[in-house]
Write a structure and sequence with these properties.
Strands 16, 17, 18, 19, 20, 21 and 22 form a seven-stranded mixed beta sheet that branches. Strands 1-6-7-8-9-10 form a six-stranded mixed beta sheet. A five-stranded mixed beta sheet has the order 11-12-13-14-15, with no helix packed on it. The protein has twelve helices and 22 strands. The protein is of the alpha/beta class. The structure holds MU-OXO-diiron (FEO).
């Protein structure tokens, strides 16, 4: 277990996982991930969420060590996704008098995941309800669709701690030192990004609280400069670009579209633009999605394949569509050797994104870059930068 200190009464009992290959079976986590869980020791004892099946034994050992022989009175369930909820039934079996505190939706969903009858021991809470543990008091804040419907957060008013469920979470185990924003942004847009309006609602509620510590279910406990993290969440959840620059996402079969994409990147850089390039066939999809949201401009470059879009570009655009991609300026560059279709198909996706502008001209390459193509690329760069 990473050495994490919150306070004498609020103990960290979570676990790092460096062995997982893909979080949620799709996101690479080169520095692992943490499943955070907390214990509040007061006159009453509350366990704040459990942990993933992958770390069950370590998590129970952490819990028992910090309990020091005491017995939990409550398990507070913020979120039923199995990376936090897997051990609920086993914990309930171990402590038969412990009550399970959860939202109405979570109480309804519990039987979907477990075989135990929880009904005699559930305490259903709603917005604003409180639970006194002695000198600590939890206030429940409903946070539906961040990013599941049953999610709630808890505010502990004595130590001014927000238990934020998946909010303010980050990829990366706690025993790894790394920049917060990079992996928190990738986590946010890939996992929570679709639900920006729900995060905006939560931020409005949080603005009324005096928060000194944020305890998320993944990633580091945040105790300093909280305005920085809250501002990032405000930008991300309102779909505003965070930085000026261009995400250039390309796919190339034999390298000709890649040559065009690199030429375009040079042109953009010569005009002072930060360019973040992705070869969609080889680079991380989740990084490409992250940067598409980070920067204010996006260029899509892909060849035609089977009279359709080259598959990894279609996959990228599908990801953006389901994540509610919006409010960006988009340039399009297609390649086709005999019947180019990629431009029309990429434009159809882009036209479906809310409040996005697709600039003219759409650059159409016939197999390789020629002088006329370069002229069109220059015109597209002008149009991108004039928006
Ligand atoms: Fe970390 Fe949505 O579970």
């Amino acid at each position: 277990m990473s050495n994490v200190t919150i306070s004498n009464a609020i103990r960290y009992i979570g676990c790092d996982d460096h062995k997982i290959d893909l979080f949620e079976s799709q996101y690479p986590v080169p520095n692992g991930v943490s499943y955070n869980s907390y214990l509040i020791l007061d006159e009453k004892v509350a366990v704040m969420d459990t942990a993933d099946r992958r770390v069950s034994e370590e998590w129970f050992a952490n819990l028992e060590r910090e309990l020091g022989g005491r017995t939990p009175d409550y398990l507070v369930v913020s979120h039923l996704e199995p990376d936090h909820a897997y051990n609920i039934q086993r914990l309930c079996e171990k402590y038969p008098a412990m009550q399970v505190v959860a939202s109405a939706k979570a109480v309804q969903m519990l039987p979907q995941f477990f075989t135990m009858d929880f009904s005699p021991r559930t305490v259903t809470v709603k917005e604003g309800d409180t639970l006194s543990l002695g000198s600590h008091t939890l206030t429940f804040i409903m946070a539906p669709m961040i990013h599941w419907p049953e999610v709630m957060m808890e505010y502990e008013s004595t130590e001014k701690v927000l238990f934020a469920a998946d909010g303010f979470g980050k990829f990366g185990a706690l025993d790894v030192e790394e920049d917060w924003a990079c992996e928190a942004r990738r986590y946010y847009f890939n996992i929570v990004g679709k639900f920006g309006p729900s995060v905006q609602t939560l931020l409005k509620k949080a603005a009324k609280l005096d928060i000194q510590t944020i305890c998320p279910l993944h990633g580091p406990i945040l105790q300093e400069n909280l305005g920085y993290y809250i501002e990032k969440y405000d930008i991300w959840s309102s779909y505003r670009p965070e930085d000026e620059g261009v995400t250039l996402a390309y796919a190339s079969i034999h390298g000709n579209t890649a040559i065009a994409a690199k030429k375009l990147a040079e042109m953009l850089e010569a005009r002072g633009q930060k360019v973040s390039m992705f070869d969609l066939a080889r680079d991380s999809m989740s990084e490409a999605v992250e940067d598409a949201f980070r920067y204010d401009k996006l260029v899509l470059a892909a060849p035609t394949y089977d009279a359709s879009l080259f598959p990894c570009m279609e996959d990228f655009l599908y990801h953006l569509k389901v994540k509610n991609y919006q409010k960006r300026t988009i340039g399009i560059m297609e390649n086709g050797s005999w019947a180019p279709a990629a431009g029309r198909l990429m434009k159809a996706y882009a036209d479906g994104f809310k409040n996005c502008t697709v600039v003219e001209p759409l650059v159409s390459i016939r197999s390789t870059v020629k002088e006329s193509t370069v002229k069109d690329m220059e015109a597209m760069v002008d149009a991108l930068l004039s928006k």
